[in-house]
Design brief:
The complex is a heterodimer of chains A (about 325) and B (about 250). By secondary structure, chain A is mostly helical. Chain A contains 14 helices and no strands. In chain A, about 80% of the residues lie in helices and about 0% in strands. In chain A, about 50% of the residues are buried.
Chain lengths: ~325, ~250
């Protein structure tokens, strides 16, 4: 399946090279640490760790722009439509002998669903949880139906999509995730000012000449990409947790926005590294363990946050006068 | 802001003609014509639900008129996108309530229309610090904005509008929730900004503030009931007509 998975071909060659480079780095780490899970025979673990680290950056990065607009649910809705996309891919492969990566069809379906949700919200002037719930159920029902039609060949691998799997990450899927990662991080790097303004204060952003509708569309499309990228390890059902939980933790302890992004990435990476480690040595599925670690970290940040505000309470500053004279001069 | 005066010869900043708008079949704004020239200090007053905020949305291009035309800096208001020319302070900070963000990060947004996809340069950072000092919030730059009082938060939003060094400042009941002492200082600030050539459009329900400070008053209740110099407004019965009852300037019913 992998051989013909990515027709984009040549464009992604440098990413295969990155993957080879990563194998080298991991083998180096193995020689230094001697950790069993990093044994060169377990190349799939190398890929799983690389994907986990990418997820730990891109999920909280996009999640930050969702959580602060009360859009935490949208990740969940898009994950379930991505599941329908996976089913479409599997269906095409089984029925029409297409040989397309189900993750590629998942990206397409999820991005279309993301735009659909956004257009509904623009038409009705609100993101409402009812339409989100409808999109979510439709996606999941469609996916399940397509899969049950082909029950013979398809039901086999479905758990890997629902719950994620550390050991089935193929090189071509790892490269697909790297490509998504670059698109996501690159887009946020370029549009960070606009995304922040729109997230914080939509009306003022509109007055400032920023096209709010377009940036909202960009955010939901990036969300769809994150969801598909993270789905391989996290699974459909838990993928939204990586968008939300580290960001919620960072919100507890951060003062500034840039600090909160940095902290959320650090928290997510901790969850990924420890989660994969625990899962490997405990013989558990990766995604759920990563989420449990992330939630444990979140609980810890709540206590740290309470402690911080208790200790900072006594610092009272006086505001200065509004200084009109200084301005009148020029 | 020093080049604001250079625009004085160009046409009006705000130009609404025969604008009618309604969210439903009943118009909220009916046949409003309003022209604001560079350097003016204009206040729009009217009772609750008189369409003040809607009028502001129309003239900023956030809503399109059902009929009539709205122009901003000579362009169709809806298509106008040079955000650097407008500073905007909302009624209640419409902003996210829980988001971790510092006062300085909020004020920096005032420079975003000028830098686009780029980074803030030295001049931008200077403008941000100057704006923080002007509103007396320099010591609060690194504080999380959600942990401040309503008045302090509003000062931060005013600083954001100032940081952009805009030609036109639009303020929608900016002093709601601000302590009395700061309110006086705030109006002094608007006056000196106006003296420096910046056009001010103030939407207010505090009539005393309006009559004390603005040069021109527009009294709105769906239609324009009065538009002229503040002195004439004080002597007229426009208020009674707009509010539908006999109301004195201090707000007491007569």
């Amino acid at each position: 399946m992998e051989a013909v998975a990515l027709q984009a071909g040549g464009l992604l060659d440098p990413l295969y090279w990155v993957l080879e480079l990563w194998y080298g780095v991991m083998e180096g780490v193995y020689r230094v640490t001697g950790l069993e899970m990093l044994h060169p025979d377990f190349r799939f673990m190398y890929r799983a760790i690389l994907m986990g680290l990418c997820i730990g950056i891109m999920a909280p990065l996009i999640g930050t722009f969702l959580v602060h607009r009360q859009l935490a649910l949208i990740g969940d809705a898009l994950a379930h439509t991505a599941f329908a996309g996976v089913a479409v891919g599997l269906f095409l492969n089984a029925v029409l002998d297409f040989g397309v990566s189900p993750y590629l069809t998942a990206v397409v379906v999820a991005v279309i669903a993301a735009l659909f949700i956004e257009l509904i919200s623009e038409a009705t002037d609100a993101y409402n949880d009812v339409s989100m719930a409808i999109v979510l159920s439709t996606g999941f029902a469609l996916g399940s139906t397509l899969i049950s039609i082909n029950a013979g060949g398809l039901a086999v691998g479905i758990n890997q999509y629902l719950f994620g799997n550390l050991s089935t990450v193929s090189p071509s899927n790892a490269v697909l995730l790297l490509a998504l990662f670059l698109v996501i991080v690159g887009t946020v790097a370029v549009t960070r000012n606009q995304l922040l303004y729109v997230t914080f204060d939509e009306t003022a952003a509109a007055v400032a000449g920023i096209s709010v509708a377009w940036y909202n569309r960009i955010v939901v499309m990036l969300t769809a990409m994150v969801v598909v990228g993270a789905m391989q390890i996290m699974g459909v059902i838990l993928v939204a947790a990586m968008l939300v939980v580290p960001v919620a933790g960072a919100t507890q302890v951060s003062r500034s926005f840039s600090e909160s992004i940095l902290v959320s990435v650090v928290l997510a990476e901790l969850a990924v590294v420890f989660g994969i480690g625990f899962a490997y040595y405990g013989g558990a599925t990766g995604g759920p363990v990563i989420v449990l670690v992330a939630v444990a970290i979140y609980v810890a940040t709540v206590f740290v946050g309470k402690l911080q505000s208790a200790m900072g309470e006594d610092v009272v500053q006086e505001v200065d006068r509004i200084d009109a004279e200084e301005l009148g001069g020029d | 802001m020093s080049d604001a005066g250079a625009d004085a010869g160009d046409g009006p900043l705000v130009d609404l003609s025969n604008v009618t708008f309604g969210y439903t079949a009943t118009p909220v704004i009916e046949d409003v014509t309003l022209r604001i020239d560079p350097g003016e200090y204009v206040a729009i007053v009217g009772p609750n639900g008189s369409g003040k905020s809607t009028l502001m949305h129309l003239l900023l291009g956030l809503q399109r008129p059902d009929s009539g035309t709205a122009r901003l800096f000579g362009e169709s208001a809806h298509a106008f996108d040079d955000g650097a020319r407008i500073g905007y302070v909302a009624q209640h900070a419409s902003a996210s309530k829980e988001m971790p963000i510092t006062v300085r990060e909020v004020v920096r947004m005032g420079r975003y229309p000028r830098v686009g996809f780029g980074r803030l340069g030295a001049a931008d950072r200077e403008a941000v610090e100057r704006a923080l000092e002007t509103v007396g919030m320099a010591a609060f730059g690194d504080r999380r904005i959600t942990h401040l009082s309503g008045g302090q938060r509003q000062r931060a939003f005013i600083a954001r509008a100032l940081a952009g060094e805009a030609d036109l400042l639009v303020l929608d009941e900016p002093t709601v929730g601000v302590d009395a002492e700061s309110v006086d200082a705030f109006y002094d600030l608007l006056e000196s900004l106006n003296g420096a050539g910046i056009t001010i459009l103030l939407i207010e329900h505090d009539l005393r503030a309006v009559t004390d400070h603005a040069d021109r008053v527009v009294c709105l209740n769906r239609r324009v009931h009065f538009d002229g110099p503040t002195d004439e407004f004080v002597g007229s019965d426009a208020l009674a007509r707009a509010f539908g009852t006999a109301i004195g300037l201090r707000g007491e019913t007569a």
